[in-house]
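Annex B. Sample input.
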Amino acid sequence: MNSDETITWGELCQKTSVDLGSEQEARWLCEHASGLDTSEFGSGLSELVSQRCGVALREMVRRRLAGEPLQYVIKRWAFRHLDVMVDPRVLIPRPETELVVQVALDLMRATQQKIDRKLRIVDLGTGSGVIGLALASELPLASAEVWLTDISNDALDVARANLAGLGLVDGDVHIAQGNWFSALPKELENSFDLIISNPPYIAVYDASVESVVRDYEPHLALYAGPDGLDAHREIISQSSDWLATDGWLVLEIGHDQGASVHELLNQNGFGTVEIRQDHSQRDRIAIARK
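Annex B, continued. Sample output.
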């Protein structure tokens, strides 16, 4: 690499794309190192790279080449219309979870037409907060009270940062620490219009998990017992105590768990149960109504 302050961003971006084998990743890293957004970076390709920015970029390239996920390297990622902070304390947001949010939004918009009060929603095991924050920001202003819970205080620190970044600090978004429903005030029982969660659903002995996931993402948010369903069992068994009449439970599930989760929901007295697929036509979303 040329000495800092003698190479332009355009030249450095081209060299970085060769080092990484990806033009897109090189562009993202260079934008992040420069502190410029996409449009600003595009118009500044002829500008010289400062020493500070060059050092920052080299460190990010080193981490990426060592195998660290891009999202953790740049500490941010897009989720629906949000730009959120992510780091190794939380899972990396995935496109499949965006579909889970869309399903929940559709259900809550329909529910809003039938009630004359605020919606009450809880995102269990919120991690970075993306599910609950997406719902809070996409539903009409002041129309919903959203709770974000997690057993991990580290994860909740990330959720708090994302909440602050969205300017919803003074809104109807509440953060509570605890294991699943134990995080919630007891007086909220039988009051939630939506319980939503992307809980851990990988079996602890699953050898098919990619090394980049196994080595970098938090195991607490990935693994759930010998069959990957421990978290689903706990959430499903308690949900009826927390849902309002006609309230909805929406869960992300593993691609091979549709039949098992459907049976769990039936066993726990849910009358309306549906398993929906993701863009790859694989089971991904469980929906149930109290």
